[in-house]
Amino acid sequence: MRSFDVLVAEAESAPTEGWDFSWFEGRATEERPSWRYAHAMGERLGHATASLDIQTGGGEVLASAPALPPLAVATEGWAPNVAKATALLHPRGAVVVASPEDAPLPFAAEAFDLVTSRHPVKADFVEIARVLRPGGTYFAQHVGPASVFEVVEYFLGPQPESVRNGRHPDGERAEAEAAGLEIVDLRAERLRMEFYDIGAVVHFLRKVVWMVPDFSVERYRPRLLELHQQIEAQGPFVAHSTRHLINARKP
Description:
The chain is of the alpha/beta class. 36% of the residues lie in helices and 25% in strands. The protein has ten helices and eight strands. β3 (71-76), α4 and β4 form a beta-alpha-beta unit. The longest helix has 18 residues, at 217-234. It is globular, with a radius of gyration of 19 Å.
């Protein structure tokens, strides 16, 4: 088995741009939701005339669609991802717009008949409702409450209930309805994750930076070493992600 230092060095040198998780193959696993979001999104894109993908990351999910509508737009706030998404999506005829995650959407009202998003940091339902045409759809997969908190709390300790219950689907239903959207479907699942080596944990925390916001190998080296020893002695570190599917319609 490779040493702690070798595994950590590999993870620290791995690129973190985009939402390509192929680096984790053989090193970590995560169950996928039963609703097959990318496939279902692709079907909807095939029937749309104007679509917007919010916080597209590196554009990988949008680019997986078999066909894009005549007008396809994506937003992204992190500069390295903007460049990656542009390179991936421009050949497909999609436009990538650099837009901060917490800024209003830079589009006219009622510009799109389909708005999508996979794992937005936070969904601004007021803005989503504004840019949707009447009869348009918001179709998205969101991260749910206390997602992967086994990892979070290993490093940060027990989190208050107010933090654990953030992103709850019931709360997002209320926000969407307050913005004038009708919930057509809302489903949630809790999914098993396994980390087979400490490098996978390090890469995960470098890539999903909001999990442990002050994470660095230097800062958390003693805890990382303890976890490395635990994985070697007991097997994979098990956590659980939470996801919910939102299908909402603007009347």
